[in-house]
Write a structure and sequence with these properties.
The protein is α/β, with parallel strands linked by helices. 23% of the residues lie in helices and 26% in strands.
Length: 249
């Protein structure tokens, strides 16, 4: 079954993706599947992402040079909108309030937003101004790389180590444990920080690329399940291997 079906992605969803360990990969996978369903899809960011070069993307609009050409937004297309491209070849995102405005205009069937940065690390905690989630968001997908378990808490492995330490109680230089990740998920200042009220929260424990990591993911999911957090769905996945297992809540 496709990831978009497992996540119950529907027309008119506005999805914000946060965390680390595969945000862009998850965004692209959902977009490709929904393109095959003949939907009009918008991908964008409220932070910045590397300039996309994937051949399945149909339109890219840079708002510092041009406006959105509605005539190019057709069924079965993927459109990306950003403000401009930086000298680091990164697509600079748009304001979250503008994404809410686009949602109201019903130009697209589905909007997916990468709502915070992670410097390509496998796990992170948000800082004081993150994540930047549009208020019209219907689903927040929080992503954690399951391969973080057993890593040391340092700048090489974790984005925003001080915030991670504060949220989880794990000291810099200590091993990231199941309990560290559980605290990141359930804390009000953790993975799902700034989620709008009544938004569906979906946890993806990604990068379970082999049997050992899949077992770790399932064990972690059981411990999270025992805590009080309003999760709609929880999955252990490997986008690379097309693996997706739903965990009971």
């Amino acid at each position: 079954m496709r990831l978009s079906d497992r996540l119950n992605i529907k027309k008119k969803d506005l999805i914000s993706i946060v965390g680390a360990g595969g945000k862009t990969s998850v965004m692209y996978e959902i977009a490709k599947e929904c393109k095959n369903k003949n939907l009009k899809i918008l991908l964008t960011t409220t932070t910045k992402i590397y300039y996309p070069t994937e051949n399945f993307i149909d339109n890219i609009f840079l708002l510092n040079k041009e406006s959105i050409d509605i005539t190019k937004i057709k069924n079965g297309t993927i459109t990306i909108i950003g403000e401009y491209v930086s000298t680091e070849n990164k697509l600079i995102g748009i304001d979250k309030s503008f994404i809410d405005e686009i949602s109201k205009r019903n130009i697209f069937d589905l909007i997916i937003v990468e709502a915070d940065g992670s410097k390509r690390k496998t796990i992170k905690a948000p800082n004081y101004h993150e994540p930047l989630i549009p208020s019209k968001t219907t689903k927040v997908i929080g992503i954690i790389g399951i391969d973080a378990i057993g890593m040391l808490l340092n700048n090489k492995n974790v984005h925003r180590v001080d915030e991670f330490s504060s949220v989880t109680g794990t000291k810099i230089g200590e091993i990231i444990s199941n309990n560290s990740i559980k605290k990141l998920v359930i804390s009000k200042d953790g993975l799902f920080k700034n989620s709008p009220e009544n938004t569906e929260k979906i946890l993806i424990l990604n990068k379970a690329d082999d049997k050992e990591l899949q077992i770790k993911g399932c064990k972690l999911s059981r411990s999270i399940n025992k805590e009080t957090i309003d999760l709609k769905y929880m999955f252990v996945t490997s986008i690379y291997n097309k693996y997706c297992r739903r965990c009971e809540l």
